[in-house]
Specification:
Layout (H helix, E strand, L loop, with lengths): L2 E8 L2 E3 L5 E2 L3 H22 L7 E8 L4 E9 L8
Antiparallel strand pairs: 1-2, 1-3, 1-4, 4-5
């Protein structure tokens, strides 16, 4: 079974996945990355951990030899001030 690695980019920060996951195919890796990035975005919005007008997240998936896909999300929280 192939092993896929899920490296994370959050703004300028990069975290390499040294362990990876054994998954049956690339479609399963895509589903795993999509679920993980949705969780990351939700957590970032809840924690208000983003700075500036926009926030970028990415999960870059590789199979040990090369990159095979990237899932990217960009969002902005625009709070309206009471006036």
């Amino acid at each position: 079974m192939p092993r896929y690695y899920f490296d994370i980019r959050e703004g300028d920060n990069f975290t390499a996945d040294d362990e990876g996951l054994e998954l049956t195919n690339l479609a399963r890796a895509r589903a795993e990355a999509a679920g993980a990035i949705a969780d990351m975005a939700r957590d970032a919005i809840r924690k208000q951990s983003h700075k500036g007008p926009g926030h970028q997240l990415a999960i870059e998936v590789r199979d040990g030899r090369r990159p095979v896909l990237a899932v990217k999300v960009s969002f902005e929280v625009d709070e309206q001030k009471e006036g």
